[in-house]
Amino acid sequence: MVSKFHSSLSEALSLMLNDSDDHDVIIQVGENQNIKEFRAHSNILKARSPYFKGAFSAGWISKKDNMIEFKKPNINPTVFEMILKYIYTGEVDLTKVSGENILGLLVASDELLLEELLNHVQGYLIEKQSTWIEKNFVLVLHTVFKLPSCKKLQDHCLESICEDPQPFITSKDFPSLDKDILHGLLKRDDLNIEEIVAWNHLIKWGIQQTPGLGSRNNDRTKWNNRNYEALKKTLNKFIPLIRFTAISSADFFDKVRPYKAVIPYHIYEEAMEFYMKDTSPKTTTLPPRVGKAQIESKLIKPKLTNIIAGWIERKNVKKPSLNKKYKFDLLYRSSQDGLNIYTIQNKCSGQGPCIVLVKHQESAKIYGGYNPLGFSCQEQWCYTTESFIFSFENGEDIKNKKISRVNSNYYNNAIYDGSSYGFNFGSSICMSSDNNVYFSNSGYYDNNIVNVLNPSLQYSNFYPEEIEIFKITIS
Fold first, then answer.
1. pLDDT, the chain, mean
2. Is the pLDDT of residue 469 over 70?
3. Which side of the chain, N or C, has fewer Cβ within a 10 Å radius?
4. Domain for residue 237, yes or no?
5. Domain boundary among 277, 293, 313
6. Number of structural domains, the chain?
7. How far is 462 from 192, CA to CA, in rounded Å?
8. b/e string for 47-68 if b means 16 or more Cβ within 10 A?
9. Measured distance CA(306)–CA(300) in Å, rounded
10. Is the domain of 327 the same as that of 439?
11. What is the mean pLDDT of residues 466-471?
């Protein structure tokens, strides 16, 4: 048996780094007022980094009194200190490091060919720094799209944007977005955005990117033909990515038609023919964007409907790429229709698959259930393999979500359909004739029900602040 004593080895190497009297390398990092020198050992650097092995072997370095002198002005001292600690000890602690420095560490890891560190940092950004990434999408995108080794983070950014594009496209940095990244986004069929919104922000981006326009000349009424031609040149490869047939005729007239001069003639004519004759375009044949689950809810933001739709498609992932389009039509809202099981029955019976949303009075949590059969008031237990109950921490948090599917041993007890209930998901979540919502662990749904209903499972019932029921149309 081989005994391993890595901790003592790491401690000894850490002492070498901190008390490097026998060093043979001086590395100067940073620039301007932020410059710092580090002392290190060439053999350790070469053993741990293919970059340093190549650099020290190929004569990229200068020597003074047998001391290797090396400069890396593009790496800041805070980042390089973390790199040296990793090289010497195999340790890195990112818990108190700023997002900017973690991103800098990612770039430096790629340059220094530290694959293990790069993969760790990439994963850390995705798992622990997603909020910071969302606030700095343009910076992160412009950085990682220069690094082929960061495809995982590239995909994470694009999928996050497609899931909820609004904060990204309305950010102050959006007009500076790289044209190739924008082109890649507009090509995606899963970009969860109304087409007229995509058009409006493409125009704004194009105006900022076009010489002679922008903040000094953004009043279209003052443009001349040369201005329109310049904007047309900027947007030339983007216009074919807009699904004009998904834009209403009113929006086309008000918001697209004024920019007729920047749209290629055949694309504009085909769009006009579609609006005037209902004739499908012959050359611009991009399909409608999928995964746009729209909802007019007071309880949840539209981005959460994609999570629900993903559960319907059994895609238990953070940001599902949907195969179909989902439409959520409001059937019942207690604040406007009255809290009454008979009103629910009258409005929802015979409408097909439905989603129920419930707001607790004393919590931000949203509880709900998916009924794939619909309501029919037939006084019976109903068989289905597809129903589930769920909860969100609040109306917009896509991370802290919980789902419990019907127990495979109790498909016959998935839904109870009867006149004494507004809704009843296997007695796990139900609304009774006293207008209270009841929770219980009936055993008809899987063990995750404890997490779904926590902490309210300890309370047998409550009077809901709001209930919404939506009919789901899938195409």
1. 88
2. yes
3. N
4. yes
5. 277
6. 3
7. 35
8. ebbebbbebbeeeeeeeeeeeb
9. 11
10. yes
11. 96
